[in-house]
């Protein structure tokens, strides 16, 4: 497979570089999320207005009608600049694109992509993290509404969101996976309480959602009543891709920043060796992401092979941040030092989005065909 840019892709890359040069803010991002948030949102809006959001999506829903390779180029070029962190939009919009009604797509997708409305993902619960099928949030049909009661936790950007892609159990009489439905939940409905979760670094990146008799219009169900599990698996498949959620650009940007901060030590053999290993790992991740995208051009949505992306992404991030912590030890001794915060965040990479053990089980069962007994 030829991974070099085609003439059209090279032209797109050059135009994108020109746009980024003219539009990326000069000031670095503040360390605190509350201070970064307005900057991130403003830059995302600017990207949308410039035609650099949802590049591979249909134009009628706010996309650009380009290809997946342009998405990869965008992620790579963002990582080579000092652009603000991009918001994880793609993986939440995908189920609306593939399962939503025409009215839902036209109502929700353009403002989602334009960052006029922020979305979060209401999947995990206190007793249903890796075992998502055991979720207990219930939605009971009552006329033209569903009455929802339950508790969601570790909801990314929940404190900033306007809407939530919510999973709830609508049928107890069928297999666990088949009794789950997906809903579009406006977070300003009566009965919704959002409680921010304050992390060790002071950020409120996550939140709990408490749902007490929330009345959701039946028309807000996404797909059929039995589609909840399928929609959830589609979301997490996109979420596990380094390109789809912008992690490839995040890692490449962090590496470029690390190299810059070590410019006075680049001649040290130990520093050269460490940076070389990180660069090689990043290139493997980038090439694997391109290979995954190339396969999807023909095959559509990602499948169980996205677990490879998640495992590789976690390994790259943890190695990058662990090595950075050692090389910049003189800058990580202060409380909440930026690189130390990044290192702590990277440790969670083997848990969020499906733990590393879950990813290995998926690969063993669905790709290698191993029986469950063989993994005991």
TrEMBL record:
Alphabetized Pfam families for the sequence: Acyl-CoA_dh_1, Acyl-CoA_dh_M, Acyl-CoA_dh_N
| InterPro entries with a match to the protein in the record | Acyl-CoA_Oxase/DH_mid-dom (IPR006091), Acyl-CoA_Oxase/DH_mid-dom_sf (IPR046373), AcylCo_DH-like_C (IPR036250), AcylCo_DH/oxidase_C (IPR009075), AcylCoA_DH/ox_N (IPR013786), AcylCoA_DH/ox_N_sf (IPR037069), AcylCoA_DH/oxidase_NM_dom_sf (IPR009100), Mycobact_Acyl-CoA_DH (IPR052161)
Where does the UniProt annotation place the signal sequence? none
Q: Which GO terms describe its cellular component?
A: plasma membrane
> What range(s) does the Acyl-CoA dehydrogenase/oxidase N-terminal domain occupy?
6-114
SUPFAM superfamilies hit by this protein: Acyl-CoA dehydrogenase C-terminal domain-like (SSF47203), Acyl-CoA dehydrogenase NM domain-like (SSF56645)
Q: Where is the Acyl-CoA dehydrogenase/oxidase C-terminal domain?
A: 227-368
Q: Please list every transmembrane segment annotated in the UniProt record, as residue ranges.
A: none
Instruction: Supply the alphabetized keyword list.
Output: FAD, Flavoprotein, Oxidoreductase
Reply yes or no: does the keyword Transmembrane helix apply.
Answer: no
Do the record's keywords include Oxidoreductase? yes
Entry-linked Gene3D superfamilies:
Acyl-CoA dehydrogenase/oxidase, N-terminal domain, Butyryl-CoA Dehydrogenase, subunit A, domain 2, Butyryl-CoA Dehydrogenase, subunit A, domain 3
Cofactor list: FAD
Record-level Gene Ontology MF annotations? flavin adenine dinucleotide binding; oxidoreductase activity, acting on the CH-CH group of donors
The Acyl-CoA oxidase/dehydrogenase middle domain, residue ranges: 120-214
Q: Which PANTHER family match?
A: ACYL-COA DEHYDROGENASE, ACYL-COA DEHYDROGENASE FADE29
> What does the sequence similarity comment in the record state about its family?
Belongs to the acyl-CoA dehydrogenase family.
**Record protein name field:** Acyl-CoA dehydrogenase
């Amino acid at each position: 497979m030829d991974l070099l840019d085609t003439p059209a892709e090279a032209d797109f890359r050059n135009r994108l570089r020109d746009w980024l040069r003219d539009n990326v803010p000069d000031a670095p991002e503040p360390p605190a999320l509350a201070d970064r948030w307005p900057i991130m949102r403003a830059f995302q809006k600017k990207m949308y207005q410039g035609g650099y959001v949802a590049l591979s999506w249909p134009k009628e829903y706010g996309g650009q009608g380009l290809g997946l390779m342009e998405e990869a180029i965008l992620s790579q070029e963002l990582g080579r600049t000092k652009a603000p962190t991009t918001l994880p939009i793609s993986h939440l919009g995908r189920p609306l694109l593939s399962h939503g009604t025409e009215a839902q797509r036209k109502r929700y997708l353009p403002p989602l992509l334009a960052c006029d409305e922020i979305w979060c993902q209401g999947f995990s619960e206190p007793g249903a993290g890796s075992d998502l099928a055991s979720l207990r949030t219930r939605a009971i049909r009552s006329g033209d509404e569903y009455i929802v009661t339950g508790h969601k936790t570790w909801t990314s950007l929940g404190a900033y969101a306007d809407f939530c892609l919510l999973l709830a159990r609508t049928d107890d009489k069928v297999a666990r996976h088949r009794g789950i439905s997906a809903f579009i939940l406006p977070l300003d409905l009566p009965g919704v309480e959002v409680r921010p979760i304050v992390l060790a670094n002071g950020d409120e990146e996550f939140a709990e959602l408490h749902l007490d008799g929330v009345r959701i219009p039946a028309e807000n169900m996404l797909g059929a009543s039995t589609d909840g599990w399928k929609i959830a698996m589609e979301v997490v498949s996109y979420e596990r891709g380094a390109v789809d959620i912008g992690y490839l650009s995040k890692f490449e940007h962090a590496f470029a920043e690390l190299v810059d901060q070590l410019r006075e030590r680049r001649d040290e053999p130990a520093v050269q060796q460490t940076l070389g290993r990180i660069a090689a790992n990043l290139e493997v991740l980038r090439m694997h992401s391109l290979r995954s995208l190339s396969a999807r051009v023909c095959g559509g949505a990602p499948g169980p092979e996205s677990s490879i992306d998640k495992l590789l992404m976690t390994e790259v991030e943890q190695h990058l941040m662990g090595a950075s912590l050692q090389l910049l030890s003189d800058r990580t001794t202060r409380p909440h030092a930026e690189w130390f915060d990044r290192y702590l965040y990277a440790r969670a990479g083997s848990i969020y989005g499906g733990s590393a053990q879950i990813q290995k089980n998926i690969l063993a069962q669905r790709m290698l065909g191993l029986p469950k007994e063989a993994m005991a």
